[in-house]
Structure formats: structure tokens, C-alpha cells
Amino acid sequence: MLFNIALISSLAAAVIAAPAPVPQTTNNPTYSWDVTGWSAGCARAGCYYDFNITAPAHGTNPTVPAFSAYCSGSENGFGLGGDYRACNIFDDLPANRGVVAKLLPAPTGSGAHIQVSLQWTDLEQASTYYNYTGHANSTYNQFVAPLQSFKITPTEFFGVA
Fold first, then answer.
1. Which string of b and e fits 103-136 if b means at least 16 CB within 10 Å?
2. How many CB atoms lie within 10 A of CB 49?
3. For 36-74, how does the pLDDT look when each residue is reduced to its tens digit (9 = 90+)?
4. Signal peptide: which range, if any (predicted)?
5. 3-state SS, residue 10
6. Distance CA 105, CA 116 (A)
7. 50-77: buried (b, 16+ CB within 10 Å) or exposed (e) per residue?
8. Do the beta carbons of residue 9 and residue 15 sit within 8 Å?
9. How far apart are CA 131 and CA 90, in angstroms?
């Protein structure tokens, strides 16, 4: 578990601060992440969210590792964006990976817009890492609607060797 905390910290720092290659757009509709238990709401202090996210391993070059994580966070400013928050990975699968999430302003001006990023290191080449990022629109449903489920299809990809 200590390894995961260090990875999550480095993932959050890399996603937020490190210069990265220009992301490539990926549009692979056969690969998506399953969001379940989505709950989000807003109060005087800002907006908040929590959900589970899972995905199977995918592809061959690079092989995207499977993962299962719980994400939660809050943003001041009613969903106007903020820092990525580390998600808790709760599987024991062999992979050096981390998941982070954050709220963004909704493109239509209403609703919840979540961004999730998965970063992993190629276990065969320790100096190589990859990142997939995807977005989804949902609603602020806490106290007014049941928990929601939906898919996020990653649309951005980059790797560093």
C-alpha cells in the first residue's frame, strides 16, 4: 500500500505540474471505464463527488492495465475546476498505476463534468509511463436522484519513454 501512495503522489504531481508531450487524441469506443455509485452535490462550501471506477486490461501496445478505484473530492467555487484528487485503488492486480479525478466546469454551464486520468508505468521499462484521460458529463444528484452509473471513454493519450 505504501507503493500505491507514492505512485499516487507522483501521478498527481506529474499530471498537474510536469511538462508532458503533446497529448494524442484516441477514439477507441471498445475501451471504456465503468463509473458506478456516482454521487455529486453542491453546498455553500462548493461541490463534491464520489464514485467507483473500474476497467479491464486493454490493448497490446501499450497494454493498459486493469484497475478498480474509489474516487472522491470536493472543489471550492461550485465545480469551477481544481486540482486532481488521488483515487484509492482497491484491487491487488500487479501493475504500477494510479488514478486521479477532478471536477471541471460543465461545457453547457450546468451539471457535473468529471475528468479522470489513469497513469501507469510499463513494468518492462521502468522509465516509461503512459497516461489516458477521459471526461464525462453527469448531474449533481445527491439527495435528489439515485446513484448513477455511466461510462467514460478515454479521449487523450500520451506516453513518455
1. bbebeeeeebbbbbbbbbbbeeeeeebbbbbbeb
2. 24
3. 999 999 887 788 899 999 999 887 666 788 899 999 998
4. 1-17
5. helix
6. 14
7. bbbbebeebeeebebbebbbebebbbee
8. no
9. 19
